[in-house]
Amino acid sequence: MRLELDNVRHVFSDNGYEALHGVSVHIDEGECVGIVGESGSGKSTLCEVIGGLLKPSAGTALCDGKDIYSLKGDEWRRFRLSVQYIFQDPKASINPYFSLFSALYEPLRIKRPGLRRKEASQLIVPMLHRLGLDEEILSRRVGEISGGQAQRIVIARSLLMESEVMIADECVSALDLSIQAQIMNIIADIHRQTGTGILFISHDMGLVRWLCDRIYVMLHGRIVEELRSEDLPSGAKSEYTKLLLEASR
User: Fold this and answer.
1) What confidence tens digit (pLDDT) does each residue in 106-138 have?
2) Helices (H) and strands (E) in the chain, counts
3) Where does the record place the ABC transporter domain (predicted)?
């Protein structure tokens, strides 16, 4: 699956704020791409547009060459199932009234109608073990677990859905450094072992440079530079990119 934004603008209708100014980016099948920039640079708006959550004001968002926002029926369903999110606040993306088992089972039932709980358990438990969680956690609710555990549950949900692209929006910024490192290693292992495409959004150039093959640098709703991680730091041309590199040391 290839995702692409072509000259996308987005203006929020409630306040007239233009968050994206003619942004063009792409993520090829199986690629790990980083979007880096300070808070307010438009990173989250970009990922919502490319992930099918926010229709752009102008320009096009494409999936394998087709306008995402013109997809209907089975094509739209396939897109929504194939692109999964890891949000900055994982607890907010898990229904607080569900047990964690139900939080993982319900999406699976959408993807595989008729899937029984026992069959789902045979998929869920090995996935938890892979991510360093015991199955006893499945009886809990999201308010009873830590942020690091919640982030693993959201990653498990994405993997169980067999997503082709995982969008990680500031997914480790709120975690302690030790947990942050664990989650980053999990994401890197997922990319290496499954070939899942990763769109990784962060304000931390060090994290993006470590994880990603290719990087877009954003400032005030615009892409100021595109470069490969292997070309850093000497390949940076933008002064803003150089500042981000300096801050990550």
Assistant:
1) 999 988 888 999 999 999 999 999 888 999 999
2) 8, 10
3) 3-245
